[in-house]
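## Example record

The block below lists the input lines for one assembly entry, exactly as stored, with component labels intact.
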Amino acid sequence: MIQVAVCGPRDASEAERAQAREVGRLLAGRGAVVVCGGYGGVMEAVAAGASGAGGLVVGVLSLSTREGANPHLTVAIPTGIGEARNAAVVNAGDAVIVVGGSWGTLSELALALRSGKRVVQLGGWRIADAEGAPLDGITRAGSPAEAVAATGLFV
Amino acid sequence: MIQVAVCGPRDASEAERAQAREVGRLLAGRGAVVVCGGYGGVMEAVAAGASGAGGLVVGVLSLSTREGANPHLTVAIPTGIGEARNAAVVNAGDAVIVVGGSWGTLSELALALRSGKRVVQLGGWRIADAEGAPLDGITRAGSPAEAVAATGLFV
Amino acid sequence: MIQVAVCGPRDASEAERAQAREVGRLLAGRGAVVVCGGYGGVMEAVAAGASGAGGLVVGVLSLSTREGANPHLTVAIPTGIGEARNAAVVNAGDAVIVVGGSWGTLSELALALRSGKRVVQLGGWRIADAEGAPLDGITRAGSPAEAVAATGLFV
Amino acid sequence: MIQVAVCGPRDASEAERAQAREVGRLLAGRGAVVVCGGYGGVMEAVAAGASGAGGLVVGVLSLSTREGANPHLTVAIPTGIGEARNAAVVNAGDAVIVVGGSWGTLSELALALRSGKRVVQLGGWRIADAEGAPLDGITRAGSPAEAVAATGLFV
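Predicted structure tokens for the full assembly:
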């Protein structure tokens, strides 16, 4: 079973939510399980997109109960480990797609690259070294379809 | 969606594995998601029982990769947080069924009672206070069917 | 530097708190660092005993802030990982001393035995296998001095 | 007791290690506890600087044992929770000083900003929004002394 982690902010723009929904729909269409943080914004949009297309969605929650989880999760895993759960979200993906930007999202992107995962970014923040040169390792995609293809998991 | 955490040792007797398989089969038959630690022994048996009956099984792994996960999981969540993941397994269950005994299993049983969950024990270890009196809070079941009923989730 | 984890309930009897204070005093007198869960009851008593004797005490907290930490800690580590921090408390000790009983305390005792640590129990709960026979691996001590000696760390 | 988390890569340049040592020395001189990830590079340099100046240093390790910890720690907390421990390092600081850059370091910087901590960056990576504008919230310092002052903790 292919699993893809999709990360993004709770406070997301309508454009970001639309992209996340489409990413979820496409992943479900290819039979992949979507893993996300389980709450609102991008997390809810990707879950809605995937479950609406008949896919399986797992929300790895920071809290120890299902309180606040979005209604589109097939399964909720309330870890109770707070923001440390970001590491688990990332570890659960064969690749990671990032939609939009926030500090929590950036921590997931960074942990994914730390662990050597393929990371595809759709919009969102930019990271550069001390001299301002973009860092290697992140694939930037221009659309949901491009992002899903760029994971390299569906060939 | 009802979720039940099923805990038990990697080194399990054939009798314990048979009980776990039956617990998994019964839970899947009632439409519940099974959450377990994702490795061998009781974890593998409950996963085999549930997936064989068409159910959904999530393995919350201690390692940061899927290495060593049993082949019956629908989804694997490699948390990378080591034995601390026992807390996440327990938090993910609306109730907890314990089959057999080991130190890791006992930690899950204890965390479940710490968090106020309904805990049903099928065989396994016995805990008593300093004077030797059995502690309140654990329901003991004599069979897989009794254990599933004793969760109080299927009425 | 020798580090000893001391575990016990927040709701502790005066006798348990007195034992914990004495354990802390003795450990500090031998130059060991005391690691505990950082809150009240046994955790506070062992911290008071150790810091009163000039020792170093680290509280590994479940919350993400220092809120509720007892005032006798030299350092507080607010992990934010909830009850999963019990694993970290235990991992931080070269040996583990358990004073009194609770479900949280039992999870720490179990995790310590799971990881092969020397565990010394002063009072507290009793664990037996399915037939009621006491399990191997726990050393029972009759006094704080006996408990500290039984860690085997001070020879 | 004031606690400052100092984050930075294992693979650090000599210039970064020199800065980290000086940050450690200055923090110890002001009576602050240094919390770090406990391994090599910037983590070792800040620990050496602080302990050499008589300060207290806590290493919050990712592994479950003290294996690989640097020799300058006063106390080691082997959490066993892997990269999820980055959240604990950050939570343990009243402010966070970042020296140099790596993906692990970036995850700590991001988690610190996520939790609303004061973050001071000495060199290291640059983060910008989707349009390339630097993000609010990070204070950039030109020297160890400036970094320590910019925490706002020593007035």
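Chain D has five helices and eight strands. Chain D touches chain B through seven residues (CB under 8 Å).
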